[in-house]
Amino acid sequence: MISTLYFLALLSSTMAQGRVSLWSERSAKNETGGGSGDRCTCDAFLPSSIFPIKDLVVVEQTAGEISHKLELEMGKLDDYETKLTAYAEKIIKLTAEIEKMEKNPDAYNDADFDEIKVEIKQAEALIKELQLSIKGSTTVFKSLRVQIRVMVTTLTRLEKTYDKNLVLVTRREYIKVQLQLEECERRHQELFNPNIGSCAHTGIIKVSKPIVSQLNAHLTPGYIYGGWGKDSKPVPDRESMYWYSGYSSGSIVDIRFYTNYKNLILRNHFQHHNLHSSWTGTGNNFIIRDNTLYYQINTPFGLAKLNFTTMGYESRVIARASARFSYTNSPNQNFDFAADETGLWVTYATEESGGRLVIAKINEPSFGVEEEWQTSVYKPGVSNAFMVCGVLYAVRTIDIQTEEIFYKYDTKTKQESYISVPFERFRDKYSNLDYNPTDQKLYMYNDGYYVNYHLWFNHTAKATVEPPTLLI
Predict the structure, then answer these.
(1) Are 74 and 223 contained in the same domain?
(2) H or E element in which residue 212 lies
(3) What are the φ/ψ torsions at residue 44 (nearest 5 degrees)?
(4) 89 part of a folded domain
C-alpha cells in the first residue's frame, strides 16, 4: 500500500510536472461468473519521477541530531567560560606568589617551593585539559558544517526538481540548525579570540576550511560575478547587517541589504538599491564601509562611492592607474577596494610599475589618496588581495582546490616577504575576496556561493587565542 505522505508527495510531484490526470475510470463486465452486474474500476498512473520522500526524512532526522549536538556544545561553552575565569584567577595568584618568592627567596624554605611547583603543575594540567576540550569542540563544528552542507545540497536539489511547498518545512529546520551553529561558533570565537580589532600580531598563520552558507539570493549558479559580506565599519544599529550584489556579468547595478544572517539565508532583504544608470560600476572589487558602497567605474575610469544614508555620490580619477591589469580569474578588476583595522585602501597597477601592485591609502572624508606604496608582485599573477592591519596579503591559485596566501607587504615598515598559507576553495573560481575587521573573517563570493573563512594570527600580545602553557 502507498502511505498517505508518500501518495501526497507523488500527487504534488505529478501535478507540478503538468501531467493531465492520475486516474482513469472504466466500466467492465464481471468476468468471474460470481455475479451478474457490471463493476467499476479505476487505474492509477504512477509517474516515472517519484518524489523521494526518504530524502526528506533523512534530512529531518539529521537536523534533529545536529540540533541536539549544538545544545550540548552550547552547554560546554558555558562551562569553558566558567573555567577560564577560575583559571585566570588562579594564574594571577600564582604569578603574584612567585614574584614574592623571587624578591625574597630567603624567606621561603624547600617545602614552600615544592608546594608552589605542585600548584603550577596542577594549573598546567587544567589548561591542557581545557585545550583538548576546545579542540574537540572545533572538530565537532567542522563535522556539523559538513552535515549541513549535505543537507542544503539535498534541499536545493529537491526544490529545483519538485514542488517547493513539500520541502519548505524541512528547509525551515535546516535554517534553524544553521543559525544555531552560527551562534555557537560566534560564542566560541568571542570566548577564545579576544583579539578582534587588535593588530598585536605578526600576521596570518592559518585559514579555516571554507564555511559555505548557500547559493546566492537569486538561487542561480549563473550569477558567478559579485560579492557579499558585512559592513567593515557599521553605523549604529546595523552591526549585524549583511549585503549582497551578484550578476551574470562583471557589472554592478544594484545591491541588497539584510538585517542579519537569518534574513540573508531566507533571502528577505530590507533594502534593495538600484544604481542610477550613470553610477553603474564594473568589476567585483566593491565593499561596504560606513554604509557606503566603494566600487570601480569605467566612465570615467576611476573610483566611486555611494553613501546609502544620504544617497550622495562621488567619483575620483587616479591618473596613473591602468585598465590593462586585472587579477587572474577576474576581468575588469583594476581597482580593488579593501578595509581593515586602520581604514580604507585601494590597490591597482600602473604602466610605470609594469603591472605590479600599488597600494594606496584612501582618506575617507575627502575620498583622496593619502599615500602610495609600490610592491614587487605582478597583479595578473595574483588571484586576489586584501588588507589586514596595514599589511597587503596577495593570493594565488595552486591547483583546482587550493589557494595560497603567498606574499605580504607591510606599509608601516615598507618590507615585503613571501609566505605560504594554503587554504581550500569550495568551488573552482571566485570573483571576490575581502577581509572584514569586525569579525576577522575572509568573505569570498565563490562561483555564486556565499563562503567565508576564519583567520588565525600569530599574536604577540599577552591576550592569546589559546590559554597559555605554564613552564617551571
Answers:
(1) no
(2) strand 211-215
(3) -100, 125
(4) yes
